[in-house]
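Meet my pick.
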Amino acid sequence: MGELGLNKIFGALLASALGIMFLMQLPNVVFASGAGHHGDEHGEAASLSEQMCQKFHYCVEVAEAAGAGAAAAEEVFDLGAALASADLTRGERLFASQCSTCHTINQGGANGTGPNLYNTVGADKAHIPGFAYSGAMNNAEGTWTYENLDEWIKNPAAYLRGTSMSFAGIRRDNDRAAVIAYLAANTANPPAFPEPLPVADEDINAVPSDGELIDGEAVPVEGAVVPAEGEAAPAEEGAAPAEAPVEPAPVEEAPAE
């Protein structure tokens, strides 16, 4: 076989190899193009939140987070109103079931794992002489106000880091208010309950009705013509027309005699 024949065989093998490589890459080219087009359409149709969810392992729904924040802002616990309407009988039952294991509340009662709680409202935070308070409580400043008691009973460990009180807390607002009101009932001369939060005035932005007075001036009726300055106001519909001014009759002069 001559050199020309070897070249033909080598060329045929090279062409075959190139053809096989092309056939192997052809599906990738076709499907990659289709996937890219589909991805573009999906990217255009998807919202920003959906795109973030696809790109990352977790996402936060912006609308839901905003709604939750608004709801949280609206739900403000009114301690003053809750204390004013608190059920002392329920407070006594809650104290007996959740507090009496460690505390007494009768006047002159003995200390237990926790101090006696008579005369607690308004007192210093570590006010029982001789009781072994934790270092965190001994260093705590201020008195047991209603607001402080509310935060303390809700979650003692979060309110005072390092406290030795192993109590999970009472999370329901009305239950805490009942217990605090019961503590106040077992305090000689307790402080007055805090004032309830002011009620929002819903009529501040109300639109005045036609004819209503605002700062002593009547609101014009819809469709009424407002006269220009110095011009007489038009007569109302149905009102009697104003009488035309009567001109005086001419006086005839008497003929001279």
Summary: The chain is about 45% helix and 0% strand. The first strand starts at residue 213 and ends at 214. The longest helix spans residues 3-45. The CA atoms of residues 68 and 74 lie 10 Å apart.
